[in-house]
Every structure is written in C-alpha cells, then in structure tokens.
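Before relying on records like the one below, remember that each one covers exactly one chain. Contacts with other chains, cofactors or solvent are not represented anywhere in the record.
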Amino acid sequence: MKDLNQLIEVTYPYNSLKDIHTEDRTVTATFEQELFDNSQIAGITLAEAGRHIAILGSLAVANINPVKNKHFYLASKATLKRVHDRPCEDVLYKGVMTAKEFNRKNGLAEGAIYDQQGEVLYTATVQYSVLTVQLFERFFAKYKSATFKSEGFSPYGDVVNLYDMNLCVDSSSASLGEVKPEWCLGHFDHYPALPVAQISQGLMNLAAAQNKLISNKDKKYCIKEVNMDAESFIFAGQKLSFSSDYNNAQNCFDTKAYTEEVQDAVSLKCWIY
C-alpha cells in the first residue's frame, strides 16, 4: 500500500511492513522477526513487536485522517501485553490495528499480533501525537542533518548494548552513550531520532538484568507487559542514560531514559516473568 506509507514519516529499514491491507478503520500487515535475543523466551520480543505494531497503528490513524498529506504520527503512550509465555518459533507474523480515535492533534489505535497459527501473541494500545511536517520542522530545526544512507544495512536486528551498568536490587543504572545516526535509520529522514522501540529495548534489558540479580536465577525470561510514556525525542548526538527502580508493590520495574537536557524522555513500566 504505497500511498498509505507515503502519509507517514517512518521509512525503510525501520518500517519493514509488508502486504499492507486496509478495510474501513483497520489495517493489516505482515512482518518478519529481525531481532533474535537468546536470553528471552523464543518468539518476537516485546520491543520489536512494539516497533511494528506502532508503525501499523500510525498507518491506521493516517488512513482516517481526512487530510491526506504526510504527517508525523508519534507514539506518545502505549500498552503492550504478551498473551502467553510459551516459546514461539515463528519468524513471520501478522499485525492488525484499528484506528479508534482521531482529531487534529491526537490519534488512538488498538490491535494485536498473530502467529502463524492465527493465535494472538501480543495485544496493543497506542496513542499518537500528530504533527504536520511544517510544525515538526519548526520545532526541531536545530536537529536537522544529512540522512545516513543504509545501503542495505539495518541496525534493528542487533540487541541494544548498555554501558557503565550498575546493578542493585532496588535501583540500577546504565548508559547507551552518544546516539549515532546509523542507529536511527528510517526514523526520520533528515532528523535522525532514536526510535522509542530501541529506547524501550534498552530499558527492558536493564530491567531484565536487575530482575536476574533479584531472582538469582539464570534462565530465559519473558517481558509480559509494558506501559510506555514518551515525552521527548532523543536525537543523534545526544547522550542517553537509563535508570531502573524495582517497584515492590506492583512487582514490576519503573524505568526511565533521560539526557542532561530532558529528565523524562521515555518512561517504561515493565513486568518480567
């Protein structure tokens, strides 16, 4: 669905959806698992699932936007849940997202990811902030730069590496270092920003390491649910830090990604089993 893809600002290789089909407010697509993390239970990871389903939801919202010009559909809040923790050996998945709400500034989409047997593996709800291209460029003009050419390379099959990790039972921290433009391919052209899915992957990896310390067990884990809140972009050149606090009352991890300039760029509440 070439025309629908032209209404959003996310491009290949970050946007790798295939076989896109629309019916009323619902958009479906297929995608292949790109990230394989042997420390997690088999199946597309929640972080990668969030990447594809958020893009698919933006297409659903763009489809009902009466203004058929290119916009930025920015995932601002999301809830993703893995329905079961059984290993899934599939590599090809189907996503279905339905646009539930839209106004000039915001959108909402809900849906699920299905395995090859037609069973739901993840459910998702994603809220979007909607910006025109002109408004986005006005807000973020100082971050404009030449687009890094992928030449067939995709960074999204690699596990996000953490540095300077400091693990404690109650509170942990780590750093991603300076964000490189080649980490942001397809997100966005001329304004390289680290995708929220990549930031969330780093936060989940830190929480998982902390969870391993708490449980004192070396086994494959499963990210069962996340609640994500994104307040700000992290553009190439900015230094990104992570923190993770164990929430005993809710048996989850309250994680945060921040820079010197922005203290709450992305917050993630994460449940691990």
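The chain has a mean pLDDT of 94.
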